Amino acid sequence: MNTTVTTIVVTEHQLSDETTVWTLTEVCERTALSRESVMDLVDLGVIRPTAESRRGAREWTFQDQALARLQRASRLRRELELDWAGVAVAIDLMEEIQQLRREVDSLRKQLYRS
Amino acid sequence: MEFKDYYKILGVSDDAEASDIKKAYRKLARKYHPDVSKEAGAEARFKEVGEAYEVLSDPEKRAEYDQIRQLGARGYQQGAAGAGTGAGQGFSEEDLSRQFTDFFESIFGGMGGGHRQAGPDWQQAFSQRGQDMHHKIALFLEEAASGVQRQIRLQVPEVDAYGRVHRRTKTLNVKIPPGVVAGQRIRLAGQGGPGVGDGATGDLFLEIELAPHPVFGVDGKDLLLTLPVTPWEAALGARVKAPTLTGQVNLTIPKGSASGQRLRLKGKGLGRNPTGDLIVTLQVTVPKRHSDEALALYQKLAQTEADFDPRKQLEARS
């Protein structure tokens, strides 16, 4: 059993949303999705390439949030055998539910303070 | 090691057709998918179902499993009891259905899930990036606001000289700076699964969760606080003490405040660039019992303010 403990110091810079940007090639590699699938998901509005890359002629780039969504999309497609349109609907609904839950929680907190 | 009855897990008979197995899997996967189900233990059930389907949907694996099931089920129960499942924390979250138990791996070896992987088969490729891994860390609000050091343990796959995959426990000390918010992802480059050949090591993504706080609610970067005030504080205005994550502050209640009124304390929330606010919602609270003297004062107040009808609007509309 290896017992070495590595210490990692996360910098505040790493917390910024803009710090991590992925190219189309990188997101494909990390999600095992084809370029076509990623483009389908862009068409369906599940993810958006960064504004700069949409304007420029360079390869599309994505913020880290898009990678997280793609990982979830890929997982839902595989594990629930959905098509991309189904995945898009599922993700939209899940996020809406999450948002509503948060609101319910905070409203409850304000209403029934013990 | 506990013997796993994959047929029982999927709720099918052992002579079930492939189509029935698929149907049963789909139904259970939908039911227990961790993104969908909030049931306790859903994640464990989902993994189990995924593993059962992995075996029973593959004719070769199914045949092999059937043999073991007939002959050796007993041996498994007597074997290393309490060895536990391999479904430890720290595995890549999106690959739940490909996290197999020790039972599975004892039959089919470490790379059991290979054929379901959408990428190139690792054996054929000269190099492949290591797997990205995901780990959730739950923090108290105070820790999120002021930074914290956490020790996390991960199970990382490791390939030996024979190409077999083993799991190794890796311990990391992670210093998290102040300013994280719920759902935040922190990428630790090169701390994921090992690459194959020249492939780079995968990354570790930490996902921050915030534990519920007894006093403060959270809305993104903003903190929410319901602050009880007395009717006279609301009516006359007052200077009261209010809690924040970093200690008490003096807060001015404006004269003529109402229940539900919100006051915003800039920069007393979470996160960075800019830091969120603390949103205080006033709640006018009355004592359970009043003294006779206080009741007399209320009587007097009622007479003095006889013209005030807070329900006027309701009557006009009904």
From TrEMBL, chain A:
Entry keyword set: Coiled coil
Pfam family, one: MerR_2
Entry coiled-coil feature ranges: 63-110
Claim: Coiled coil is one of the keywords in the record: yes
UniProt name for this protein: Chaperone-modulator protein CbpM
Organism expressing this protein natively: Saccharospirillum salsuginis
UniProtKB/TrEMBL annotation, chain B:
Alphabetical list of CDD domains matching this protein: DnaJ, DnaJ_C
Keywords carried by this UniProt record: Chaperone, Cytoplasm, DNA-binding
GO cellular component: cytoplasm
Molecular functions (GO terms): DNA binding; unfolded protein binding
Highest taxon, organism lineage: Bacteria
Keyword Nucleotide-binding: no
Segments forming domain J: 5-69
One of the GO biological process terms: protein refolding
Keyword DNA-binding set for record: yes
Protein name: Curved DNA-binding protein
Organism annotation: Saccharospirillum salsuginis
Lineage, opening ranks: Bacteria, Pseudomonadati, Pseudomonadota, Gammaproteobacteria, Oceanospirillales
Gene for this chain: cbpA
